[in-house]
Amino acid sequence: MRRSRDVPMLVDRARAGDPRAVARLITLVESGDELLPQVAAALAPYTGRAQVIGLTGSPGVGKSTTTNELVRALRARDHRVGVLAVDPSSPFTGGAILGDRVRMQDHATDPGVYIRSMSSRGHLGGLAAATPQAVRVLEGAGCDVVLVETVGVGQAEVEVASLADTTLVLLAPGMGDAIQAVKAGILEIADVFVVNKADRDGADATVRDINGMIALGERGPGQWRPRVVRAVAARGEGIDELVTAVEKHHGWLVEHGELRRRREARAAAEVEAIALGTLRDRMGSLRAGTPLAALAARVADGSLDPYAAARELLDQLDLSDG
Amino acid sequence: MRRSRDVPMLVDRARAGDPRAVARLITLVESGDELLPQVAAALAPYTGRAQVIGLTGSPGVGKSTTTNELVRALRARDHRVGVLAVDPSSPFTGGAILGDRVRMQDHATDPGVYIRSMSSRGHLGGLAAATPQAVRVLEGAGCDVVLVETVGVGQAEVEVASLADTTLVLLAPGMGDAIQAVKAGILEIADVFVVNKADRDGADATVRDINGMIALGERGPGQWRPRVVRAVAARGEGIDELVTAVEKHHGWLVEHGELRRRREARAAAEVEAIALGTLRDRMGSLRAGTPLAALAARVADGSLDPYAAARELLDQLDLSDG
């Protein structure tokens, strides 16, 4: 009861700029706390306005350095910036304090920047479920730009990246990333390609490869053609060009009604995932005595087929408020 | 109506050993045909008895060759064998005729062997949903051993492998597979490791690496300790040892009540996935006019939070038979 009453106060403090309140709310979100629906309800009025930028790429392409420089450039344009560094494979909980990454120390004392690492540990729906809520916390805290940085390997990361308005895919010369990108379907999610470490051998070839892939890609007349930006993030080079590309894409999204469309599609996916998660919980696990366990035993011995079992399970499902 | 009446006849023909009927049933399964529940119902009485062996590994480790040799060895022991070669990344539909892989031509004329490639194309729930049904078709057709061969990369493949009673993980010397295996969580699913191409340089090191990982793995006193088998599948070497290891593991599963437990857990996951798929269908997509679309629009503009939206969606959900 007491904790439940804390939520509106915590949201008020986060809105007033208290970094500890922001940290506390993200921890609640990340751990899939039972207060999550209340947190979401308290935050809703302050959400839906921030620009969400996804940034993904293989290990070693310079994601953190690029994020760091992007934050600097966005701050110089007077944006309040939130950063979620999402690592699905991290064994660490994300419960560290704000500014928990050494490389982000440049911004540790800047009250206009919130930085947070997240891992999927503890959250039932995984990062795909937790990340949109964490974005809402940062929006509630007044961030008008939220950067979501993920390792670009695998389905979960693609899902996380898909919550962005604009997705940046980082590559580096000579890493075979271009081929990897196609394989992983990353080409389809990239709005802007960043060839980082562009002072290295092979940068021209990488840019050429990407441009070739873009040229081959099928696009309708009204569709966005991905931009390619060269950067040397470690020296701050190309970052202004990157910000310009992001702004161009944002303008295009607004102009074509695509921003609204993407956000509604994302909201629909999120609502559906929460609803399915609720239903899954109600279906119960394999613990003895649950309807699912009894049905599974009959399917395993061949006395019932799985479709008939699923129908029986749905018939027994209580949809009244749990 | 007419097609619906065909199902029992098709199952009868498959049970009588008609390979075209088996192929037709797997195509129905793979395409997520609306007749699927009827197919599953007709097959149920004949399922739950076959031994399911999963075989996974990176491209180039020799999965097809090993499968081919395993089939030969199992045939020599008078088993009827089904093979499902599952490739989640394949752009081809699996609608090819039985014995569609050149490398499997050895068994093309053997009526005791069914071989089938599958892809996830067309099936809503993906391979994780289609594969258990395809295993049932092969069981129904009289196979007492079903080999499921998958490329060991990514979550989908781990899920597919998880439907096996016994999972074989293939590695080859000098491919960095050992490290990859740990990363992908494949160590946790392996009951038997096969170091194929064991005549090559680095085979000893690979065996040592795996044994080291096994030694470090946490196991309770009653748990199975993964076996390591060396093989040169291209020359048929090590295959008898592999069959022996598989038989040992099967005996261990039976002895410890683990076979029953695994199969019930799998059946539960399958029933749950079908039930959730049904519910997802009923929730509707983002097409204008559906409840989900209306709720998503309110979430996107911040006038409703996603948890409240999910509750409203569930309240509107019709669970009566669709």
From TrEMBL, chains A, B:
Keywords: Chaperone, GTP-binding, Hydrolase, Nucleotide-binding. Pfam families: MeaB (PF03308). InterPro entries: AAA+_ATPase, GTPase/Isobutyryl-CoA_mutase, GTPase_ArgK, P-loop_NTPase. Residues 49-193 form the AAA+ ATPase domain. The keyword Chaperone applies. PANTHER family: LAO_AO TRANSPORT SYSTEM ATPASE, LYSINE/ARGININE/ORNITHINE TRANSPORT SYSTEM KINASE. Belongs to the SIMIBI class G3E GTPase family. ArgK/MeaB subfamily. This is Transporter. It comes from Plantactinospora endophytica.
